[in-house]
Specification:
- Helices cover about 25% and strands about 35% of the residues.
- The chain has helices spanning about 1-65, 135, 175-185; strands at about 80, 90-105, 115-120, 125-130, 140-150, 155-160, 165-170, 195, 200-205, 210-220, 220-230, 260-270, 275-290.
- Strands 1-7-6-5-4-3-2-13-12-11-10-9-8 form a 13-stranded antiparallel sheet.
- A hairpin with a 2-residue loop joins β8 (about 195) and β9 (about 200-205).
Length: about 300
């Protein structure tokens, strides 16, 4: 009887051990399955975020740059994705200008103007911009573009309701801008200068409280009337050129306009009669706008050239 009891007890103990081992195994399997599911969800979320980011970049790029040519003075793409590019830790701006850009066709009706905000800091060699129009307002999220001459970088800061992130590009034209800043540093007596690179002085007027000189240029293709302020340069004379890669300005800003801040410009094509009118409508000084790069984690996308 004792032997039978021992056998039964041993059997029950073995069964209990097996059941406990199976339970532990099931618990481990359940934990592994849960971890795998969480990893899959995280991977899926990352893939979706990457896809959304790519779509946002494509839409934003198209609305600002359009089909940007790969030709540049440097002999390569104007902007080239670079996941390891150096940037400043933060970008600070103290002056913001607001410009309206309107195209007026001779035939048909005009589209609503594009609003361009330019951000400046006279003590730094970088500048920023925002664009607004009906098309851009349809896109989800905000886009701020920084042109950094020092680091030869163009940085896109993007934000939506939940996330902030950034993308960085090599900016091959930065050296040209730096050279331009050096070449135009020599002072010119503009009161005595009646002509400049094909422009003839036509008068003076105030725009937004700033004294402006007017100039006119006429070629077989177009006429340009441009009003320049030297009081409103904000230490960024040729940094304005950094923005001319935008499709709204590309081909509109004269290459050798008289130095200073463009406050107003009207260009008219001789053949078609189509006009482009640009005018500064607001200038805010002593602002304090800061963009901290740590707030915009760098995202990596497959390397692409500017035309993609």
């Amino acid at each position: 009887m004792k032997v039978l009891t021992s056998i039964i007890a041993l059997s029950l103990l073995s069964a209990g051990f097996v059941i406990d081992a199976e339970a532990q195994l099931l618990k481990r399997l359940k934990k592994k399955a849960q971890q795998a599911a969480e990893q899959k969800l995280e991977q899926k979320a990352t893939e979706q975020l990457q896809q959304m980011a790519e779509q946002m970049v494509e839409q934003s790029w198209s609305s600002v740059f359009g089909d940007l040519s790969t030709d540049s003075a440097a002999g390569g793409p104007i902007f080239l994705m670079n996941n390891n590019i150096t940037t400043e830790e933060a970008y600070s701006f103290d002056t913001i200008t607001r410009m309206e850009i309107e195209k007026i066709p001779q035939q048909g009706s005009s589209e609503p103007p594009v609003i361009m905000e330019m951000y400046f800091n006279p003590d730094q060699q970088y500048t920023g911009s925002r664009f607004y129009n009906y098309e851009m307002k349809q896109e989800k999220g905000e886009l701020f573009i920084i042109y950094d001459v020092k680091n030869s970088a163009m940085i896109m800061l993007m934000a939506n309701d939940k996330d902030k992130f950034s993308f960085a590009y090599d900016w091959n034209q930065a050296l040209n801008v730096a050279d331009s800043l050096q070449r135009t540093s020599e002072p010119t007596d503009w009161e005595e200068t009646e002509a400049w690179q094909g422009y003839t002085k036509i008068g003076q007027k105030d725009i937004l409280g700033y004294a402006c000189d007017g100039y006119r240029s006429e070629t077989e293709n177009e006429t340009v009337e441009i009003w320049i302020s030297r009081e409103a340069e904000f230490g960024m004379n040729n940094l304005f050129r950094a923005h001319t890669n935008a499709k709204q300005l590309r081909g509109q800003i004269p290459a050798e306009y008289p130095q200073g801040m463009i406050m107003e410009m009207t260009s008219e094509e001789i053949d078609s009669g189509d006009k482009t009118v640009m005018r500064v409508t607001d200038i805010r000084q002593n602002t304090n706008e800061n963009f901290v790069m740590a707030d915009y984690p760098r995202m990596s996308l497959p390397t692409k050239t500017a035309q993609n």
